[in-house]
Design goal:
Layout lengths: L1 H6 L4 H5 L6 H23 L4 H17 L1 H95 L1 H33 L2 H19 L8 H15 L1
Helix pairs in contact: 3-4, 3-5, 4-5, 6-7, 7-8
């Protein structure tokens, strides 16, 4: 009668698994099935017949199904397994994440190195370009300065050769000196003649000398009256007598 009551009692699955989403209970039931399988295997290894093994497995089932301490034992083992599995899973995930992080860091470091190399290359190119531009600018400045100096030298030479004040002074000192000498000589002769003539003749001679000087210094000669020329000729005839 006692056996019947135990047989009609709930199954181990119903005692360990409380609902369909009870992961802990499902894992506890899996652990129970594992122990039952190992117990049967042990008996077979010992050479026991199947009837004996079946009886022992039935007793094992009834104990777990009826004794709450055995059920708590399997749920505790299930919790440990789940924690260890989760811990291992977390560890594996963390390890994988660390590998990915390390790979990303390595890629970033490589990319940074490439960018640094490119930046250094750009700086070198910019420096070379600036140097080339600076050299060209210096050459152009020297060229322009030389051209301006040549132009100034040519202008100075032209100014020295064609400058009208210089040419006028040169003409005065050379060509005009003959005219001045002639004028001075004429004035001296007239002064000597006037010194030996009478007062009226001296007056006419002074007027003629003044007109002669004005004629030399002006573009249009001032005409000398025939009367003055006659007086001048008469004066010369008297002087010769």
């Amino acid at each position: 009668m006692e056996k019947l009551l135990i047989t009609e009692k709930k199954w181990v699955y119903s005692e360990l698994v409380q609902h369909d989403n009870d992961v802990l209970g499902i894992v506890a039931y899996a652990l129970y099935k594992k122990d039952k399988h190992e117990t049967a295997t042990q008996y077979r290894n010992e050479g026991r017949d199947e009837e004996f093994i079946a009886a022992r497995i039935s007793e094992f089932h009834d104990q777990v199904a009826s004794i709450s301490a055995r059920q708590v034992h399997y749920r505790t083992l299930a919790e440990q397994v789940i924690n260890e599995t989760l811990g291992l899973a977390v560890k594996n995930v963390a390890s994988e994440l660390n590998k990915q992080v390390d790979k990303i860091k390595a890629d970033l470091k490589l990319e940074e190195k490439l960018l640094t190399t490119k930046n250094d290359d750009l700086i070198k190119r910019e420096t070379a370009l600036n140097s080339t531009i600076e050299q060209r600018v210096k050459k152009e400045v020297v060229k322009i300065r030389r051209e301006h100096l040549n132009k100034l030298a040519d202008a100075s030479e032209n100014l020295r050769v064609t400058s009208w004040p210089r040419r006028t002074l040169y003409w005065v000192l050379n060509g005009f000196s003959g005219i001045v000498a002639t004028t001075i000589t004429g004035i001296a002769i007239l002064a000597f003649a006037a010194y030996t003539a009478d007062e009226a003749t001296q007056k006419n001679l002074l007027q003629n000398v003044a007109k002669y000087v004005v004629e030399l210094m002006s573009a249009d000669p001032i005409p000398i009256s025939t009367n003055s020329l006659e007086v001048d000729s008469k004066t010369k005839e008297r002087s010769s007598q």
